[in-house]
Design a protein that fits this description.
Blueprint (H helix, E strand, L loop, with lengths): L5 E5 L29 H12 L6 E5 L9 H9 L6 E6 L4 H11 L3 E5 L5 H8 L7 H14 L4 E7 L8 H10 L2 E7 L6 H7 L4 H12 L2 E2 L9 E4 L6 E5 L12 E4 L4 E3 L9 E2 H6 L4 H21 L13 H4 L2
Parallel strand pairs: 1-2, 1-10, 2-3, 3-4, 4-5, 5-6, 6-9
Antiparallel strand pairs: 7-8, 8-9, 10-11, 11-12
Helix pairs in contact: 2-3, 3-5
């Protein structure tokens, strides 16, 4: 088991998109009230007094959509300035990134992952649940801005949905040839979208690799990331291809992360809801920091057991929260 040193921090559970794999279509989602979101000060207390002392040094900011949080640049700056921070990154849909890329970079953010599930505007809009003016161009402009500012590595994430965007695998992979962009193909998961998942299912990463291998060839990448992706490269390409295969190729044995929701709940495993801790509630009710630290340390110790023995509960499609609410 890898050292558990990577915390994904959801800044907000709201999003300006409603992606099929993240929010169930037609569902009436209950969002966290503003006063129930973890504050910047509370987050810094948790990082400095609980997570960093027990070994967390790598942090990723997520949502919902993290860029809709008004103080996102200040949060980036505060975490980047912590002396123990070894790595700080963000996952975003890039809709607001064109205006914020420079400020985020100057605040200390250096790595960014952008959701790009299609290169076709009409398919992209279908996936994000947009029925009005297309939003693809704003996302593409955000990607270009991040590239020009100097984010490196710049990663583009594609959730592969059968019958929706799986015909674009080679088009997305080709983006890694002439640019130092890193494309990540993610297997579709049954989290908050049981009906769509049972209708569509998922495509195994090995099938995607076969398509790419048949077109260009494929070699194992020389650089390993901080996360669960298996890294490959088209021969001679500037970028890499990553495959996150949580359905077909269990990576629990090398998972190094936990997740903190926007309302302050610590979740040990994306595919499992066992053992969550209400850290924000503990803070606000005056639970001693030493007690909260002990609870988190115990959950870190139990994580391998949660990953392995109860992983099957992560394929039932029955979850208390959608992906957007988890901040996965």
């Amino acid at each position: 088991m890898n050292a558990i040193d990577y915390l994904r921090i959801s800044l907000v559970d709201r999003c300006n998109f409603r992606c099929q794999y993240c929010m169930p279509e037609g569902a009436d989602l209950s969002y966290v009230l503003q006063q129930d979101l973890i504050t910047q000060d509370e987050l810094l207390v948790l990082l400095q007094e609980i997570f960093i002392p027990i070994g967390f040094t790598r942090f990723r900011l997520t949502g919902g959509e993290p860029l809709i949080r008004p103080d996102v640049v200040e949060i980036v700056r505060a975490i980047a300035n912590l002396p123990e921070t070894q790595d700080l990154s963000m996952t975003t849909n890039a809709f607001y990134l064109e205006k914020l890329a420079q400020s985020l970079y100057e605040a200390g953010l250096r790595r960014i992952n952008i959701s790009l599930d299609s290169l076709k505007p009409e398919v992209f809009d279908q996936i994000i649940g947009n029925r009005g003016r297309t939003r693809w161009q704003q996302v593409w402009d955000g990607i270009q801005a991040a590239h020009q500012v100097g984010f490196n590595p710049l990663k583009l994430n594609m959730v592969v949905i059968p019958g929706v965007n799986d015909s674009e695998i080679l088009d997305l992979a080709a983006l890694s040839i002439d640019r130092e962009w890193h494309i990540r193909f993610i297997e579709f998961m049954p989290i908050g979208n049981g009906d769509l998942f049972s209708d569509r299912g998922w495509v195994a990463s090995e099938e995607l690799r076969r398509q790419i291998r048949d077109r260009w060839g494929l070699t194992e990448g020389q650089v390993r990331g901080n996360g669960p992706a298996d890294i490959f490269q088209i021969p001679g390409a500037k970028g890499t291809l990553g495959f996150i295969s949580q359905m077909s190729e269990c990576f629990c044995d090398r998972c190094n992360r936990m997740r903190l929701s926007a309302d302050g709940w610590l979740r040990p495993c994306l595919l499992n809801e066992t053992g969550q801790i209400d850290l924000k509630g503990g803070l606000r009710s005056g639970v001693p920091l030493a007690d909260l630290r002990r609870q988190v340390r115990e959950l870190v110790f139990l994580k391998p057991e949660i990953n392995y023995k109860e992983r099957d509960s992560g394929t039932t499609g029955r979850y208390a929260r959608t992906m957007s609410q988890i901040g996965g």
